[in-house]
Amino acid sequence: MAFIGIRAGLRRRVLKLSPPALLASFYLVVVLTGGVLLMTPWAQTGAVGPLDALFTSTSAVTVTGLTVVDTGTDFTLFGQAVLLVLMQLGGLGLVTFAVFVLASLGVPVGLGQRLMLREDLNQSSIGDLLQLVKTLFSVALGCELAGAVLLAFVFVPDHGWAEGLWAALFHAVSAFNNAGFSLWPTSLMTYAVSPIVNLVVPLLFITGGLGFVVLNDLYTKRRWRAITLHSKIMLTFTLALILWSWPTFAVLEWTNPQTLGAYPNWWERVTISWFQAVTPRTAGFNTIVTGEMEDATALMTMTLMLIGAGSTSTAGGIKVTTFAVLLLGTIAFFRRSSELHLFGRSLGVDEVMKVLALTVVSMLIVLVAIFVVSTTHDGPFLRLVFEICSAFGTVGLTMGATPELDTLGRCVVMAVMFLGRVGPLTLGFFLATHAAARVRYPPGRVFLG
Amino acid sequence: MAFIGIRAGLRRRVLKLSPPALLASFYLVVVLTGGVLLMTPWAQTGAVGPLDALFTSTSAVTVTGLTVVDTGTDFTLFGQAVLLVLMQLGGLGLVTFAVFVLASLGVPVGLGQRLMLREDLNQSSIGDLLQLVKTLFSVALGCELAGAVLLAFVFVPDHGWAEGLWAALFHAVSAFNNAGFSLWPTSLMTYAVSPIVNLVVPLLFITGGLGFVVLNDLYTKRRWRAITLHSKIMLTFTLALILWSWPTFAVLEWTNPQTLGAYPNWWERVTISWFQAVTPRTAGFNTIVTGEMEDATALMTMTLMLIGAGSTSTAGGIKVTTFAVLLLGTIAFFRRSSELHLFGRSLGVDEVMKVLALTVVSMLIVLVAIFVVSTTHDGPFLRLVFEICSAFGTVGLTMGATPELDTLGRCVVMAVMFLGRVGPLTLGFFLATHAAARVRYPPGRVFLG
Ligand SMILES: [K+]
Ligand SMILES: [K+]
């Protein structure tokens, strides 16, 4: 690497600063390349302007799924294939992808790349990283192929062999990577009560949203007692969030004639509620018109979008584990324990400080974005907030504000999608490289209540 | 006290649990007494129902200022006097009040009362508490009287001697206690560009909002180097927040014909911006129609309302110091210092944990309240969120939703006002009585980004 040979102090400095910046630059390069490809006449039918193409590329690489054009009709098959590759790159992690390709071609993976990989996977030890990458690649491609085959049973009868198979593959990849892109303007509303779609698609995006650490854990250990603390928290809280949001969605929307009320049978309503309860974290498909939800349901959905899914996953948001530490830390405080412990392990100050920093930065990004967009945008406030939460959680659900945004608004949403995807990844770096304080200050007291 | 003589373990338990519960009960009793008094025909002209009376009493005791009736015309002079007493009780702190009265009557102040006083003032050492109470009483009454005299110069010419003097006293007490109650349905809009009102009223509520610890510090030490870390943070951040919100309000509203645009002169617009920039933390008077603000301005105002003013003050919200620790903790994390230090002092894990708990609980209260009210309320989402933020920060600014709320909505707003005022006070107790963990767990790791 270029910086080997430079004196130790500087090298440590470059090592410290570079990986997050490099990772962000890589994502940016892919976004720009994708945008340029989507601008070409081979990729689109002429309805997609330069800013629209860049927006779509950002949305695909950050696996968000917010759109300003119609994916199924405004892009050609080539354009859709570009989107598919962008989603896969963005979802599995660019660096993961690069390192895997290099390693399988026999190219030795250097320290710099390994450090970036570590970053992209939010891992703090470099050992066994390549093995992890191989495992997650097998799991990802296996899941996507299996999903595509199952979805083909539904899509082929409706759309014919060629279009049906392409739709099955596209939606399977989009689902596993939590990208939320659909070839149809009404997303999956046509299949709102299809049993296969309601099982396969959520299974794909929940699996993808658990994160590779959890998948690797489950893949190699297969027993509850053996898996890591991180996996235990992820699985428990994912289940808890589903068990909370599923019945709540059903109760809030049961008689809304624009959503569940349009379906006469109770099992249809329960099925749709299931899908809407899991899609905010952070899949982004919808089987009802999101903009017709009640205000209370929209609020619940926004909360779920901000929480997102798992670290080291295809999801955005502050992540389930951050939410868990926030909640458990609060409970620990009220129970007057000076330590935070769960499943028989304790969490240190570093973790609590990181949760604090991550939450504050996330809330600041969301607040500033809403503030900036609202200075020039005149639509209903709820829809604007919903859209920004959707962008930050890289969810892609929409109540209709995104296509109406002006240029400033679209640029802000693009920035928020990028920060929502890349920000937390790079933030992970700071914990690993935490330095000890050089100067110690006498303790002070502040009144906070 | 009743529990002296019971064995030590139980006594420590009662001492631990009781003060917050007792404090909350005391506030509740005053709210109910006030509500009953306001229900009587002596207090009102007949337009105030039982729920309205209870709402007004809650609003006064929690020094919020949200109203569902017209304070100036629906209540008699006696009713207004009751409100004045309720504001003074709620603002200065009930227990402070009780202890001061008892002590000045020569009644010895027992340990139990001292503990509650400690609670109400958010102090962790009992020493010098009585002295502090005496100082703050002198400061409070002095400020209120001086304010009333100055305001009389404006109000007496407009309303005659009797009504003018009463209005001057009422608004001075309301301002110093950050209560936000006005005798006029348009609050202070008539005096939007009056120099005296724009100096005296904000001076009163900013002073009251600094908190008694800061006031006592300034009163006894009078030099920057000598005052506590807490006072330094309070003064610095209060100034910073004013310097941020004043020009921002002016820029956002400058050409809005419903607010600043209605005033032709630039100095009038600057004056009104000054008032609107300081009133959200947490005075609650207004000199323009709050409901006509731009969405972006409303968002900024909501943020300021949630931050509130100082600990141990007449204000609500998460408090300026909590906000400061949130921000500085985040900056410290990014600068990779494992300790949080400011003005040459370090803050411990306990403080960070408390900030985490306080922020999470506050956000949960606000979220749950908006969620519950939105299930039955159909108005614009922004106005509802604004109203709940106003209630939690005990601010009292309104965009018009409160009078339109149904019974459920009003009960939720009452609960939020109560929690916004009493909650953080009682939360302060938990830090002081933090116990060391009895069981130590091995350290665990969670991926958070
Ligand atoms: K998505
Ligand atoms: K107030």
UniProtKB/TrEMBL annotation, chains A, B:
The keyword Ion transport applies. GO terms for cellular component: plasma membrane. Pfam families: TrkH (PF02386). Keywords: Cell membrane, Ion transport, Membrane, Potassium, Potassium transport, Transmembrane, Transmembrane helix, Transport. GO terms for molecular function: potassium:chloride symporter activity. It is a multi-pass membrane protein. InterPro entries: Cat_transpt, TrkH. It is found in: Cell membrane. It comes from the Bacteria. The chain crosses the membrane at residues 21-42, 48-69, 81-109, 129-153, 165-184, 196-215, 227-246, 314-334, 355-375, 411-432. This is Ktr system potassium uptake protein B.
